[in-house]
């Protein structure tokens, strides 16, 4: 890691109090940036403030409230004098098919995952024009294909993927880059669903790399996309999923035909 790659830069991270967002706050601080971490839940923000007193401002913000998001971005510029990167990361999930998901829940999922990216980008872009800055959205592999029983989340993340492309082309000539990271399963809640004894083996089996990701492995991708190392990348939805979406979903032919496969190899 280059501890100076983001020196002098100012970054806002939404959903910065926990999981991928908190790892992203740490990563940018480690790479020299000043960071404003925003979250609706003050607990995680407090943990970060206890740990870092320099170059970090925390702010309780509900990203579904456009005025609050505008205040957040203005507060970042007031605190540090500029804005270089807006990380629209906050997200929420609900289970269900279109038949199961109630309209209020559908709206909530759209508000947190999609409207918030629109609000954050809308507030940030005038400041990013001044710095030649960039936006990184946390989308998901659930924005690239469907997941059984996750219809609202997949619809919202699919929209984030295309919003990323559209903002990239609209603002490229203003010197702004817009990208997203599309994580696969990431262990943000140890002891939660991905650690459940029934689920862990399924994840390990289905993911070619044999494990779920860690928040820091997504934070590093966000920091890369925000950096000059990605200076010619815009409109890209970068998958970080241990190979999960590289797979067609067909059976593992190597396992199924292991004997025949080995016999054929021996015969060669
Ligand atoms: N963990 C995964 O497997 C995974 C996979 C793909 C994409 N993602 C995406 O990564 C992003 C971060 O998720 P995570 O896994 O770190 O989850 P997380 O639950 O660890 O963190 C999400 C954070 O967002 C905050 N948040 C929720 N609603 C908010 C609101 N209205 N305003 C402000 N903050 C709000 C929460 O308080 C929490 O701190 C999300 O966009 C999520 O959809 C996660």
Q: What report would you give on this structure?
A:
- The chain is of the alpha/beta class and 268 residues long.
- It has one domain (10-267): 3-Layer(aba) Sandwich (Rossmann fold), CATH 3.40.50.720.
- The protein is 45% helix and 13% strand.
- It has 9 helices and 7 strands.
- The protein has a 7-stranded parallel β-sheet with strand order 3-2-1-4-5-6-7, with helices on both faces.
- Strand 4 (85-88), helix 4 and strand 5 (134-138) form a beta-alpha-beta unit.
- Helix 1 (19-30) packs across helix 7 and helix 4 runs parallel beside helix 5 (151-171).
- It is globular, with a radius of gyration of 20 Å.
- The termini are far apart.
- 43% of the residues are buried.
- The model has no long low-confidence stretch (mean pLDDT 96).
- The protein binds nicotinamide-adenine-dinucleotide.
CATH class: Alpha Beta
For the record, give the distance between the C-alpha atoms at the N and C termini, rounded to a whole number.
46 Å
Radius of gyration: 20 Å
CATH topology, which one?
A: Rossmann fold
- Helicity level: 40-55%
InterPro entries: NAD(P)-bd_dom_sf, Sc_DH/Rdtase_CS, SDR_fam
GO molecular function: oxidoreductase activity, acting on the CH-OH group of donors, NAD or NADP as acceptor
Keywords: Oxidoreductase
Family: Belongs to the short-chain dehydrogenases/reductases (SDR) family.
SSE map:
Elements: E1 10-14, H1 19-30, E2 34-39, H2 42-51, E3 56-60, H3 66-80, E4 85-88, H4 103-131, E5 134-138, H5 151-171, E6 177-183, H6 200-206, H7 215-226, E7 237-240, H8 253-256, H9 258-267
Parallel strand pairs: 1-2, 1-4, 2-3, 4-5, 5-6, 6-7
Bound molecules: nicotinamide-adenine-dinucleotide (NAD).
GO molecular function: oxidoreductase activity, acting on the CH-OH group of donors, NAD or NADP as acceptor
Family: Belongs to the short-chain dehydrogenases/reductases (SDR) family.
Protein name: SDR family oxidoreductase
């Amino acid at each position: 890691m280059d501890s100076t790659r983001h020196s002098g830069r100012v970054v806002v991270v939404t959903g910065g109090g926990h999981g991928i967002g908190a790892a992203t706050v740490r990563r940018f601080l480690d790479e020299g940036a000043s960071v404003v971490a925003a979250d609706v839940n003050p607990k995680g923000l407090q943990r970060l403030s206890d740990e870092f007193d320099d170059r970090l401002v925390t702010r309780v913000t509900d990203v579904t409230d456009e005025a609050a998001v505008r205040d957040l971005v203005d507060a970042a510029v007031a605190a540090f004098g500029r804005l270089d990167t807006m990380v629209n990361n906050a997200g929420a999930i609900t289970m269900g098919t279109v038949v199961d998901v109630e309209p209020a829940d559908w709206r909530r999922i759209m508000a947190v995952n999609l409207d918030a990216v629109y609000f954050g980008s809308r507030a940030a872009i005038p400041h990013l024009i001044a710095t030649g800055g960039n936006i990184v959205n946390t989308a998901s592999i659930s924005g690239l294909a469907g997941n059984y029983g996750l219809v609202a989340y997949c619809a919202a993340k699919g929209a984030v993927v295309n919003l990323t492309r559209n903002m990239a082309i609209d603002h490229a000539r203003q010197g702004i880059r817009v990208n997203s990271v599309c994580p696969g399963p990431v262990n943000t809640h140890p002891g939660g669903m991905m650690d459940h004894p029934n689920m862990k083996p399924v994840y390990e089996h289905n993911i070619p790399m044999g494990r779920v990701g860690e928040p820091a492995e997504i934070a590093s991708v966000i920091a890369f996309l925000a950096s000059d190392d990605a200076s010619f990348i815009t409109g890209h939805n970068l998958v970080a999923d241990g190979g999960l979406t590289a797979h067609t979903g067909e059976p593992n032919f190597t396992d199924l035909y292991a004997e025949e496969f080995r016999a054929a190899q021996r015969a060669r």
